[in-house]
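$ fold --in a.seq
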Amino acid sequence: KDGKPVAIADLAYANGADPAMVIPLLSQIDINCLAGFAAWNTAGNTIGTVVAQAAMVHLRRLNSDESDNIAVKELMEQLILRLLEDFVYQSIVRQEVRNRYDESKLSREELLTVVKENFVPEAEGYFREKGFENIFSQWEVRIENIFLPWNRTFEIGMDISLKPKH
């Protein structure tokens, strides 16, 4: 509220965000004001990502117009990607998939199908109802090209695209 940049490194758990922190956080702050967020698989990856995001925000504020559309869009892509991967996928969807399926008994195509069938509705639910709605006042978000880089549930890959709403 004081106009100072805030970045969040969620270190509560290895390999995923803390739902007890993220859900209330999303209802209390405007994600568009965050300078960084991550909850990666290790504390080192999380801290490194958040420090890099926050440093870029700081440098942008020192050296250019804060409304630099390209920089704002790139930061939002990073924040949304981290929330989708670290919170929606790792903390929710991956746990559900692993509880319901023995991934060793699924082909890579079956595993990817199961992940997509669980991930997409959950992500869309967060965008529309459970905390990310404020993003939609400014951005049109598309999740594309969902894949499992190593053909296991441990990590997910995806492309996201943002388009400003005017």
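$ fold --in b.seq
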Amino acid sequence: MRFGNGFQPRSHWPAALFALTALSAALFTGCSGAAGNNPGPADTTPPSVSVSTPQSGATVSGSVTVSANASDNVGVAGVQFLLDGGNLGTEVTSPPFSTSWNTTQSSNAAHTLSARARDAAGNTATSAMVTVTVTNTLSPLQLDLVNVATGLTHPLDLQAPADGTGRLFVAEQGGKIKIIQNGQVLATAFLDIGAKLSNSAGEEGLLGLAFHPQYATNRRFFVNYTSFAGGALHTVIAEYKASAADANVADPAEKILLTVNQPETNHNGGGLAFGYDGNQRFLYIALGDGGGGGDVHGTIGNGQDTNTLLGKILRIDVDSVPAPGLQYAIPSSNPFVNQAGLDEIWLYGLRNPFRFSFDQPTRNLWIGDVGQGAFEEVDLLTPLQGGANLGWRCREGTHTFNFTANCQTATLIDPIFDYPHANSDATVIGGYVYHGTLIPQLANTYVFGDFISGHIWTLTQDAQSQWVRTQVLTAGAGNLSAFGQGQNGELYTAGYSSGVISHIHQVGTP
């Protein structure tokens, strides 16, 4: 409060005036604004909050992700999860609002979960409770592979668009995309780009496929393949559209978004996927380190060099107005925008991230990064870890590989799990977190495997938060090239040598 020129030190104020001033100050504590202006009414609207996973009535075991949906007119400042009325972990202060619950530390009984949201004005609200049953004494999980379709030729990727049709699309290394509908492989290929490929063997060919999140209305999809057009080997990221006249046939018109020169024929990466980036969905692209052995290209290796796109996970915007000279936009939140390094880079320090996926409830990114000669690794990144250095070629997994001077000052993010080349394991194939309904014991569990051995594993955390791998299946040596996830959350495998697409199924169930 400001007074006129007759202001006197407080010690000379009459007692009544002093008391009135003190009362006035107390009434307006915490208010802001220009002198003489009354502040607006305080926000009293509580947040809206509900537990989204697990659903009420679910049976859970092992490590479970607990998630909440929360919104507020002035913004959600945090969500605290409650287990049987007590705090479950620490408050989560930014989306996605989720935490991990190790059910092995809870009794085998019914438990209640709820979420308490707090907004920026200090208002709170608690969700309705959901009741779930913890059962960690289930009989050992027995899985098998049930054939869905046969007759494919070297399938390398398996995707299901969000269009409600239940169709599975299989990308063959030779350049064809086939459709599985109602248990049958359609005779006519959805797309055939075989004439554009550099090769259809080794680590070249049609390597990846991704459907736009709004594919049901815009018919857009994207492919990752290798080409020798122009006389030099390069990776091509291209956009196509399904025909407006026939949903089972693609328009052959191609829009090339990005090309990246490849110094060798191996380590091309190949994965494509749309992430969960708030109000927008950006396209993520996996590129290997350029091949050869030991990442010998460049002075520090391509994986560590942020001035090359090789050895990276890229993130681009395919929905906004393209940046000058490009066929796509650069998300302004990419970590190297206005920094040293290429704007497209999201993560670096990778060797050959052939397969990766996003877990929708948590928005976390899971990567299977193929190792050099001794170790394979699985990486887990949150949406807040853009710009992370995953270590290659300084490290192979958690083990020192070529730890040169640049590595000594770098902040390296270790994988959550790595495994040695033993029992014929030698090429990790990244998979998916299971969100189907047919195998409750797999709920919220990461499923992945190995191409060379054909082993299929789950990856879960124990009571000490250590990641534990458990073998649950085998697809056969040299036969596991990809996992797929249907719209219903069920998981599938692609058999490279057999040409069989299979469904992961629990023994003893329909």
